[in-house]
Amino acid sequence: MSKTMTGAKMVVQALIDQGVDVVFGYPGGAVLPIYDELFQQEKIKHVLVRHEQAAVHAAEGYARSTGKPGVALVTSGPGATNAVTGLTDALMDSIPIIVLTGQVPTFMIGSDAFQEADTVGITRPCTKHNWLVKDTEKLSATLHEAFHVALSGRPGPVLIDIPKDVQFATGTYTEARQVETHYNPQVKGDLAMITELAKAMETAKRPVFYTGGGVINSGPAASQLLRELVAATGFPITSTLMGLGAYPASGDNWLGMLGMHGLYEANMAMHDCDLMINIGARFDDRITGRIDAFSPRSKKAHIDIDASSINKVVHADFPILGDVGHVLEDLLNVWKARGRKTNTEGLAKWWGQIKEWRAVDCLKFTQQGKVIKPQYALERLEALTKKHDRYICTEVGQHQMWAAQYLGFEDPNRWMTSGGLGTMGYGFPASIGVQMAHPDALVINVAGEASWLMNMQELGTAMQYRLPVKQFILNNERLGMVRQWQELLHGERYSSSWSESLPDFVKLAEAFGAKGILCSDPDTLDDAIIEMLTHKGPVLFDCLVEKHENCFPMIPSGKPHNEMLLGDASTKDAIQAGGAVLV
Amino acid sequence: MSPLKIKKGSTSHSAYDLRPSYSDTVERHTLAVLVENEPGVLARVIGLFAGRGYNIESLTVAEVDHQGHRSRITIVTTGTPQIIIQIKAQLGRIIDVHKVNDLTVEGPSVERELGLFKVAGKGEHRVEALRLADIFRANVVDSTLESFVFEITGTPEKIDAFADLMRPLGLQEVARTGVAALSRGAV
């Protein structure tokens, strides 16, 4: 039974068949037929964003908070080019999204037509894969394959460019199950190598689990298996920014986040361990610091779905190619079958050492006087929202690192932040995507005022769809992270790193019909946060904080893990010329 | 416990033969990349090399299986062993790539290149060019009273050597195809 329909109808039908319930988008000339089809159905909701970049970030937020692919729909030319930042962001963080772009009709491609851009050319390096569909007969199969590619193996963004005449023409609709694909990445790890790793785990004196976004991407079962493995072995565990929530922050073995602004105990454990078990992380430069001094005395296991991540920057003694969930299941089974052994004596000593590092209390700060410390604001936010069904997004900068340090994540898919690309302007639209997926949950975007302004137009979207997203802005009237680097690295010459002419955020919120709250007094902070939480609609919370606070701990550029800066006193001349060229 | 419902399957890309030796020596490798002959597939491969800063010494591409719609791209590249491993893994990530073979490490292989040489000259030079072409088993595919076009096949080194000899004899223009390569033996 074959169904004949227009290309535009195929798009909507394929989205429905793939279980899509929300599309984030912005119409334009080259996608009008698809918008016409969206208008005539009720299964898919469309969220009209105010800028195409926001559509892609919203799709990312939807994907990260649900584990399902996010979908964005934009027009040709500027619609497509505006989507590029979001695509690159999703590629760097391995987020499965499907972006549909309109294109000028096939007979006008290459003629510099109005709103024409070489979309597949522009987006080739920033998608996992992309397609230009020139034949309506192939459109539905391509759409189904796009979902398969976005979700299989290492997830990522895909783009389908659809010329307008292909949308108008009719063709035969292909069902998802009829589509054949040669792309089936290996998910099972090599059992022999898994056994080697299990053996190493039995004798290790100073083991550490180093987990990343791959655990989240592998699905909730992977997080469950990870928790089981950590509990059974008693090994300490740290995580990258991307992997927060896979292991609960309240868990006994949790060391906190590692990396450039990671916790002292986490980075020291990484430096001094004798067995590092990397699960779904990629030895990013924010994690390793100086590569030739990175964890010099350890054997390293690396579990990853992407062969190109293994041995890319750090040599793996136990390379295991496969899906984290599958490999963890096998690892746990093998280790149990071999008698659940660990080096208890070594482990006890190791935990003794970790306890000493923990005693440094690297996140301590003192809230005194009448100015709110950003750390204090987050500590109060954590205390007052911990019991809620809570999702946290962030923008990029100091506030992002503080959020990672001071907020606790108990479950996967609760933390949406731009890790690899570091996209300012990510958090607000991402929070809209999260709230669409979880209408009754508490969705907070922890922001800096500068990042937030980059996609502030989305306040219109939040109002139109009555999305009660809470924008918690730590306002220091500075580009805080830039300012911090200029202080440490460029002789305190603050070149263009403070924001003059900031808007009155309360009035700005009110101009859109939203609620604005201003708080500058530590004594009224709790009440103000509660006011934000009890308000039913979107809130713009302008929290005026200490302007010159630096984010610590910090591993300066070009330094190894055991040379962390713990506070302002230790920063003088910390970064030398060699490290200054690094970002 | 078996709570996972993830589709099982496999590809030919494996990490287990990825054992870097940390050598700094730059090696020359010939890679055979079997790809789906889709629009843009060559751009993906070249874009990967440009974007990640890898070298391309030579590149040839043509459809080798018209029915199956497959093209074979032969790339000669240089890099440290770690870079070469990374190049292969990155090629393996491209969705349209079916298979990556490193002919340099996977046993013996044959490499051939075709060159066209235009040599112009009179008298002794002309005779000498023809004589050398004969030694190199080059064919004359075009001739005028003042010029020859030679066609020569062989390893890149042989074609280099021929070019060196032709230069003083009036070499005008050279066209080379780049390397095509196959592994030796039955499979």
TrEMBL record, chain B:
CDD domains: ACT_AHAS. It is an enzyme of class 2 (transferase). GO terms for biological process: isoleucine biosynthetic process; L-valine biosynthetic process. Pfam families: ACT_AHAS_ss (PF22629), ALS_ss_C (PF10369). Signal peptide: none annotated. InterPro entries: Acetalactate_synth_ssu, Acetolactate_synth/TF_NikR_C, Acetolactate_synth_ssu_C, ACT-like_dom_sf, ACT_dom, AHAS_ACT, AHAS_small-like_ACT. PROSITE patterns: ACT. It catalyses: 2 pyruvate + H(+) = (2S)-2-acetolactate + CO2. Its EC number is 2.2.1.6. Keywords: Amino-acid biosynthesis, Branched-chain amino acid biosynthesis, Transferase. Gene3D superfamilies: 3.30.70.260, ACT-like. Chain A, domain 2 (3.30.70.1150). Pathway: Amino-acid biosynthesis; L-valine biosynthesis; L-valine from pyruvate: step 1/4; Amino-acid biosynthesis; L-isoleucine biosynthesis; L-isoleucine from 2-oxobutanoate: step 1/4. It comes from the Bacteria. One of its GO terms (molecular function) is acetolactate synthase regulator activity. Belongs to the acetolactate synthase small subunit family. Dimer of large and small chains. This is Acetolactate synthase small subunit.
